[in-house]
Amino acid sequence: MTNRSAGRAVGIIPVREADILVDGQPRMLGGQPLLAYTVRAGLDAALVDRVVVSTEGRGAADLARALGADVPFLRPAELARPGVTIWQVLRHCVQWLAEQEGDRFDTVVLLETSHPVRPVGLVDRVVEALRSSDCDSVLTAQEERHAFWLQTPSGEIQQVGAAGDATRDGRLPLFREAAGLACASRTSVVFEGLGPGRNVGLVPVRSWFGLIDTQDPFGLLVAETLLSAMAEGAVPAGEQFVGIPR
Fold first, then answer.
1. CATH number for position 184
2. pTM for the predicted model, two decimal places
């Protein structure tokens, strides 16, 4: 098969069937399948050429196809077991697409269903940030200017990143990784299957809503509360999210 050019990006959504189906039915959020929000984020991104769901389950595959994603294969069971890294799953997907379909990409975009609330345009911003830099990967992260502390192995408590008398505006920002929202990596890095590489860039996400994580016990409740608030017009002006109408 032919190489259908470089300069293209594939959005990969890795899911285990148990994460998006309950008793064979879609796990719902705000009247839509939870998976729908992440598929829509990929499909709406101008810089993503193809959206592929990697799953081991036929029910999850059928749902993904109904939502508009490609599911060209079922992931091998050994790659759906606990302990398998996301990078192993991404590598399997890009290798399968290249070897079985001749479809090759220069950029791989990770999108995870556990982060359903994405600001409009975020995925494209991450892809553009990667392509305009020499980074191996660019991922989303929450910017923090609060005071943080850590406990050393000896039990000592130390402040992180700033002197104790620094004001919030005077502190250097810290960043909490939120790569499940969007992480763009060069395909050469993904083929290594070990992680995002050594040269990593960040796209800060300052909206708290973008960090909702449905793997947290209260994540779905928080997401449902956000949707209800948006329906009532209670979300601050300027906040717009993929797949969630205002």
1. 3.90.550.10
2. 0.87
Q: Which residues lie across from 143 on neighbouring strands?
A: 175
Does the pLDDT at position 166 exceed 70? no
pLDDT tens sequence across 81-135:
989 999 999 999 999 999 999 999 999 999 999 999 888 899 999 999 999 999 9
Euclidean distance between CA atoms 103 and 111, whole angstroms: 19
Q: Tens digits of per-residue pLDDT, 59-79?
A: 999 999 999 999 999 999 999
Give which of 41, 192, 198, 29 is closest to 110, Cα–Cα. 41
Residue 156 belongs to a domain:
no
Higher pLDDT, 44 or 149: 44
User: What's the CA gap between 196 and 187, in Å, rounded?
Assistant: 10
**Tokens 């939870």 sit at which residue?**
34
**Interstrand relation of 32-33 and 25-26 (parallel, antiparallel or unpaired):** unpaired
- Kindly calculate the radius of gyration of the chain based on its CA atoms and give it in whole angstroms: 19
Please, what sign has the CA dihedral across residues 116, 39, 12, 122?
negative
Give the distance from CA 68 to its chain's centroid.
18
Cα of 142 vs its chain's centroid, Å: 13
Spatial neighbors of 213 by CB under 8 A, at least 6 apart, are: 114, 115, 180, 219
DSSP character string of 79-126 = GSSTT--HHHHHHHHHHHHHHHH----SEEEE--TT----BTTHHHHH
Total domains in the fold of the chain: 1
